[in-house]
Amino acid sequence: MKVTKAKFKFKGGVHPPYNKDLARDKAIERLPMPKELAVSMSQHLGAPAKCVVAVGDHVEKGQLIGERNGFISVSVRSPASGTVKAVEKRLGPAGGSADAVIIETDAEQGEGETLPALDWKSASREELLKRVEDAGICGMGGAGFPTSVKLNPPPGKRCEYLILNGAECEPYLTSDFRTMVERADRIRTGVEILRKILGGCAVRIAVEANKPEAISALEKAFAGIDGNVEIVVLPVLYPQGSEKHQIFAAVGRVVPEPPALPIDVGCVVENVSTLAAVADAVEFGKPLIERVTTVSGDAVVEPKNVLAPIGTKYADLVAFCGGTKEPPAKVISGGTMMGFAVSSLDVATTKTTSGLLLLGRKSVFQYISGPCVNCGRCVRACPMNLNPAEISKAVESDDVKSAESAHVMSCLECGACAFSCPQRRPVVQLCRRAKASIRARIAAEKAKAAQAAAKEAK
Ligand code: SF4
Ligand code: SF4
Q1: Domain of residue 180, CATH code
Q2: Whether 207 and 354 share a structural domain
Q3: pLDDT level of residue 235 (50, 70, 90 thresholds)
Q4: Ligand 2 atom 3: the closest Cα is on which residue?
Q5: For the chain, what is the domain count?
Q6: How many secondary structure helices (H) and strands (E) does the chain include?
Q7: Which residue has a Cα nearest atom 2 of ligand 2?
Q8: Domain identity same for 395 and 338
């Protein structure tokens, strides 16, 4: 298998301090089963799953507890055997609240309910797709898009390139890195399954150059694989892990503005950990009920990469890492660039929780943002060719229309602009505010049009 250097480099990007050394050499460790789990029904992009258990029910590990609720939705299975203590609203890692099933786990955990093992070589494409859906798999890199939907392109669209996202460009996070080093063979099986589902396509495994151990583990695991498969070594540049930028770096194709999707340019991008989850779901019948989360930051006694059941409270992860050296000045769900600050360790992990950071006083500082000085640094940093200064000033003046004309909907919320701003302006927050307001307006317009159509039909 060939290892090549990326031929294409995107414009913009930044070099935040990576701080990956804290956990990169820590082999994945399994967390003993916590006494209680809080399993959210909204762990993915799209409609929350519909809870199908009630207080007092005994559930088996792997049992369906949340049904897929629409086309863009994902089912949820129980990560443990135990008793349902409550079904209630809980705060999620990104700040919103959603229904969660609170499970008091059994002291003894058996094998639980697994799905029947499938031989991917003889299974049909439909059987494999159904398995991905039944196992409740969504993208584990952050967005949580339902994997079975992504692997089933609409008529007329064909996947020419399957791109594996192994960039993990977010500071501190090493869960994908450890998965590539320790589970490269599972990633290979995942690739073979996806190639069968997608009807045969070239494969590009995109890894940042600062992960040589991952590159050699993948090279070894993929040795002798048939077809057009290459590892593409990407320059170390944030946000290299963004889907659009990976596609450009790996195959030189440009995804047009939303609502265009990678499949519109013949590409499907999947995170490396998702591939390993697909392999486990098919070959071992194992649903997505656990994941690796990096617990790191200078306030943690022993940073680790922890394999924990989904629904594990952050407090249990921190205790497994020896607790804290000092009261954390900031707790972040995810990485420092795109993660969300959380106010409580009662929040529980989801299928997309790749990291939990506890930062000490020295790593966090308070600041007052100043007015824009038109220095242009944010414009140079923006990987989407936007003008973040213009957008942010428009939003501050409540002129969302101008922000929309300046293509704010293309904003990735990557934070490269805010990172480079000498005035510490909350540019990303302002972009988010504009996007939320535009989405709300579009939803209201759609509802109005539907109402009018229904009235006319009467
Ligand atoms: S405007 Fe959006 S895409 Fe551009 S740098 Fe800022 S957050 Fe990233
Ligand atoms: S970096 Fe900050 S100060 Fe400079 S142009 Fe952008 S928003 Fe204005």
Answers
A1: 3.40.50.11540
A2: yes
A3: very high
A4: 372
A5: 2
A6: 13, 18
A7: 421
A8: no
